[in-house]
Amino acid sequence: MEYNKSALKKVSLFKEILTPPTQPNDKRWHDRDSLERTVYAFSKCFYDANVLDQNWMDFQDEASANYKKDGWIENLSIEKICSFLTVLVRKDRFSEGFLLMMVEDGIVAKILARLQEVNE
Description:
There is one protein chain. By secondary structure, the chain is mostly helical. The chain has 7 helices and no strands. The radius of gyration is 14 Å and the shape is globular. The model has no long low-confidence stretch (mean pLDDT about 90).
C-alpha cells in the first residue's frame, strides 16, 4: 500500500501533545477533558488520513504480544505502524478509553516518534 506522506505527517504531529509529561509542573495534561478531546482529535485525524489497515485484526495478536518489548516499536515499518495505530483506534471503538490508556502509558508517543522517523 502506498501511504500519503503528508497525511501521515499530520498524524505524527500529535506526538508532542500526546507525550506523557515528565515533570510534575508540566500542565499539558492538567485537564482530563482536554486530554480526552485531544485523543479524539488524534483518532479522527488518523481516520481522515485514510491509512487504516483493513486487516488490522491479523496484526492485533502480534502487537499485543510485543508492544512492551524493548526496541519492538522502534523497528516497525511504516506498514506495521499503520497497522498498530489501526489496532489502537479500532480497539477504542469497542472498549472506550483504550486509546487514552495507551496515550497515558506513552505507547502512542513512541509509535508516533517512529512514524516521524520512517516518514521523512
